[in-house]
Each structure stands twice: as structure tokens, then as C-alpha cells.
Amino acid sequence: MDQRVPDGTTQAAGGKPHTRRWAAQRWLVDNIIEANGIDWDQPRSVYLNAPCGTEASADFAAIRQQVKKFADCSPAFEAMARKREAKAVAAEEAGQPVTARNNYFIAAIHWGAAQWPLEENNARNLADNERKRACYAAYARLADHHVEPVWIPLGEKRLPGWLHLPPGHQGGRLPLVVSLPGMDSFKEGIVQLYGDPMLQRGMAVLALDGPGQYESPVLDIYFTMENWRATGPALFDWIAGRPEIDSGRVGIAGRSFASFFGTILAASDSRFRSCAVSATCHEPGFHTIFEEASPTFKMRFMYMSNFVDEDAFDAFIRDVTWEDDVGRIACPYLCLAGECDELSPLEHTERLVGALKGPKQLVVYEGSRHSIRGPAANNGPHPQTLIADWTEARLRGDPLASERWFVEAGGRVQKTPLRGLAPVP
Predict the structure, then answer these.
(1) pTM strictly above 0.90
(2) CB under 8 Å, gap of 24 or more: what pairs does 325-328 form?
(3) For 73, 98, 168, 177, which has the most beta carbons within 10 A of its beta carbon?
């Protein structure tokens, strides 16, 4: 029996990953969802709503009411996506381009969210992906800034992305942020509909689904360490053909599992000038997230890695770590972490940061879990704002003192030096 679906082919019927915990605990997951709603494992409806703005709040409130079990997730988002798409079409036909673009954007987010529980390349996943792309392309056509689909050659395949230029850009070479989604999110939700913090600071954003991330498995591009190590050089090859991008000012931003992907990406090419990650997944082998957290995480990552057999995946993931790559990172590195991260114990992040040879900053939020929220984030440096300001400064060439910040619940920041590193030259 083939334990891993062969690369270069879509998963056939019956290609859905199977795990022991999912089979044994499905009834628990459904009961927890009935008691706690769609945000049972992480604030999913919050981070999906965030890029859409307040107009979409009623959508997500309705979805929170509708989802009572795991099987409700995709239908609830699909139904809301159809409503928003119909509103967008009607608005465009009525000559209301701003209303149309808002609704196309929100519809794309709903279509993308509907894909999350679909851990195989079946007809439903492919159809939802097609509608997501179509709605986002319609939004891009009407957007208040330049948005275009891009494809990054990686071997014989191409990684999917969307390139955003700041509103009002009239020429000249821009700094670029390569922005990566987490395990359960997608590139269309990275850049906010309005007021995006990176764009507002004059930086272009390449929102990218890297190897194994969301649309990439649909295109048969799966997670491997080799694929991520090849992605950095592939990005700079693509950047060389983009006259609006300054190849000497390229940074990385990644959240959740992209804190790991972004770290490997930063190590893959010395031309990156910054790497900022948050909501960490830094445990070698990822035992905590895959064996102690919601069983959906392991199912999702098996799909991302093109595995259907759990034992084969366990043997594969056991050796997946940043430890062989981190020594090659020379650019400044920012890491935001929750003190009580339930998916990746803080000790692993502290060990990673300690191994970095370049300038680095570790910011730990008191009492916060994996999703950095609560009093410390509310009263202290806001995570998204901190990352945007930090990235802008690094791509501008400002020096960085290596420090550990501990953000107390009341907002006070305790700063202590990290040893052995000099400021950015």
C-alpha cells in the first residue's frame, strides 16, 4: 500500500488522511463545537472577519450561530459566500464598484474558509477554490490599489500568490514583504480590505501560499523541507523581473505555522533583510500541536504534506525541525510569542532565538496563548502594529539592538538584552 500519495498527482477518491485520534475523538469534537462554537480550537471567526472589516461582522455572527458540529463548517461558509457573491454581482451591474469590490472580497474569504475542513482534493474543494479565486480576482479588478495574481516558478510547478502595491503608488522601487498564512488560513486573507498596516507604511506585499499551504496542495505542491528551502531562491528569481520591487529590501512575515515556514524561508536565501513571525510553532517534530491539541491540526497537515497514512506521517514529521537551518539566518529576526502557548511550548521558541546568530528580538506576551490576545496585547504593543513598524524599520536599514521583551498584562514592557549579538550594520 502506498502510504503517501505520489507527488505530481491529485489525491484520488479515498485519499483523505486518516488518524486514530480523529476516529476516536470525532464525537468529542462535535460536542465541543456544539458547546463552544466554530472558535473551539482558535479564534477562527475573528481572524477571518478581521481583514473584511465591520461590514462582515453580521456574516460571522450568523455562522457562529449555525455551526453546531464539524460537518456544518463548510456548508455555513459556502452559503454565506454565495450571498456575498450575489450582492457583489448586483452591485457591479448597478454601477456601484466600491460596494461590489467589498462584497467580492468578503465572498472570497468565505469561499476560502469553506475549504478549511476539506482535507483532500475532491470536487468540492476544487470548486470552492475556483470560486475563491474568481471572487478575489473580481475584487482585484476593482480594488483601491494595484492587486495582481502572480505565480512563482518552483521546479516544474508554480506557487500561487497575490501582489499588492501600496495605494497611490506612482512608480519607483518598493520594499517587499513576503507574507505567509498559517496552517488554517490562506493568502487572500493576509492583506486587509482597507487600511492594511504594511501597505499603509509604503511596503508592497506578496501574499503567498507556500509549499503545502492552502491552494498549493490543490496544485499538487506539498510541504517538504526541500520545497521550502528552494522557495527563497525562487522568490528572488521572480523578484528580478519585477521593476517595482527593490530586491535589496525584501522581508518575511509569517504567523502561526508560518512562524516555522518563515524561519526556513529566511534561512534559504541570505538576501532576505528581515523576518518577523508570531504565534509560534517551533517545537521540533510538533508533538504538542499534533498529539495534544485538536485532532484537526494533524489531519490538515497530513493533507498539506500529501500523506494518507498516519504511521508514515509520524515517521516523516519526527525529523522536521529548524535546527539544521537556523544557523544560516543572518537577517534581523523578530518573534512574538504567547507565554502560555498551548500549541508550541515557549521553551522551543526560546531555544530557536538563542541559536540565531544575527540581530534578534523576542517579545513574550504575559498570559497569552497561541493566538496572541488578551490584556498584554491590548494594553502593550499591538502585535500587528509592532510587526509592521519593526519590518518598516528593518527594510529601511535602521539598527536593531538584540533584546527580549516581556509584555505584562498591564502593558508595561520589561526589556533585557540578548547576548552575543551586535546591532544591524
Answers:
(1) yes
(2) 325/229, 325/263, 325/264, 325/267, 325/268, 326/263, 326/267, 326/352, 326/355, 326/356, 327/267, 327/355, 327/357, 328/267, 328/268, 328/270
(3) 177
**Residue 169 grid coordinates:** 503608488
From CA 292, how far away is CA 345, in angstroms rounded?
12
Edge-to-edge, what's the strand order for the sheet holding 403-407?
147-154, 157-164, 204-208, 174-180, 245-255, 274-278, 333-338, 360-365, 403-407, 413-417
Cβ atoms within 10 Å of 215's Cβ, excluding its own? 20
Distances (CA, A) of 38 to 61, 65, 69: 10, 9, 8
Helix (H, G, I), strand (E, B) or coil at 246: strand
Q: Note the residue count of the chain.
A: 425
The ranges of the chain with pLDDT < 70 are 1-14, 420-425
CA distances 236 to 223, 269, 373, Å, are 20, 9, 34
Q: Which three cell numbers stand for residue 356?
A: 540565531
Q: Are 38 and 73 in contact (CB under 8 A)?
A: yes
Q: Report all structural domains of the chain as residue ranges with CATH numbers, in order of start.
A: 37-143 (1.20.1440), 144-282+322-425 (3.40.50.1820)
Classified as helix, coil or strand, 94 is coil
pLDDT tens across 11-24, in order? 444 478 989 999 99
C-alpha cell at 329: 539566518
Q: Which residues pair with 364 in a beta bridge?
A: 337, 406
- DSSP H/E element including 43: none
Q: Provide the pLDDT for residue 420.
A: 44
Q: In terms of C-beta density within 10 A (0-12 exposed, 13-18 middle, 19 or more buried), how is residue 212 classed?
A: buried
End-to-end distance of the chain based on CA atoms, in angstroms?
A: 55
CA dist., res. 297 & res. 290, Å (int): 6
